[in-house]
Amino acid sequence: MESNMYVNAYHLDTQQFEELYSGAALQDAVIIGDILYVAKSSATNPASPLLSVNLTTKETVPVKIDGNVIYALCSTGENMYGIAVESDENSKKTALFSFNPENMQTTTLLSLADEDTDAFTYLRENEIYTNIGRDKVFSYNLSTRRATTYNRSASLPIKVAQNASRLVVLNKDGSVSWYNADIQQVLADWYLTKDGNWYEF
Q1: Cβ neighbours of 177 (radius 10 Å)
Q2: Which of 36, 41, 92, 198 holds its CA 20 to 30 A away from the CA of 2?
Q3: Domains of the chain, start order
Q4: 8 has which bridge partners?
């Protein structure tokens, strides 16, 4: 993604860039099969927050999905996940959603009755993480359809990563929180001091 206007691909074999799509107010993009899905604001043409672009024919089709803007896309290779924000004069809503390209079905996984335009998604195996609402990390298990909360012990979470048994959260103030991913328990909070050492608190 370049300047919220271009979706580019870099081919490792030829070391060449290829422009896949250009438009206005672009937010994110993923490729599933031979289809590029582009998340954007519905305020720009075409008036849809999600587009599908056939990489062979370049045919661009608006996807029927609710929202003023979609962002933070990720994919298993079969299904797509992302954040949809829908707001008007009467209500505001932010949702973590799944989208099945085969039947074009959208399912809401987690929902927040507020507007959050800066959440993240992180997908690892059958678990998808997000921080919609800004103040804590949520995980949603795609197999059990069960949501879990990781209550924060430090600053606001802005990014996560996971290995086999540990979830690590980067916080807004630069601190790092470690969790036991199996029981959602905080193990430690680390802060990097000015002299380059980690301080546990």
Answers
A1: 22
A2: 92
A3: 6-119 (2.120.10.60)
A4: 19
The pTM of this model reads: 0.91
Q: How would you classify the pairing of strands 166-171 and 146-150?
A: unpaired
Nearest to 41 by CA among 19, 69, 62: 69
One digit per residue, the tens of pLDDT, for the chain of length 201 reads 899 999 999 999 999 999 999 999 999 999 999 999 999 999 999 999 999 999 999 999 999 999 999 999 999 999 999 999 999 888 999 999 999 999 999 999 999 999 999 999 999 999 999 999 989 999 999 999 999 999 888 889 999 999 888 999 999 999 999 999 888 889 999 988 888 888 887
Token pair listed for 118: 């800066």
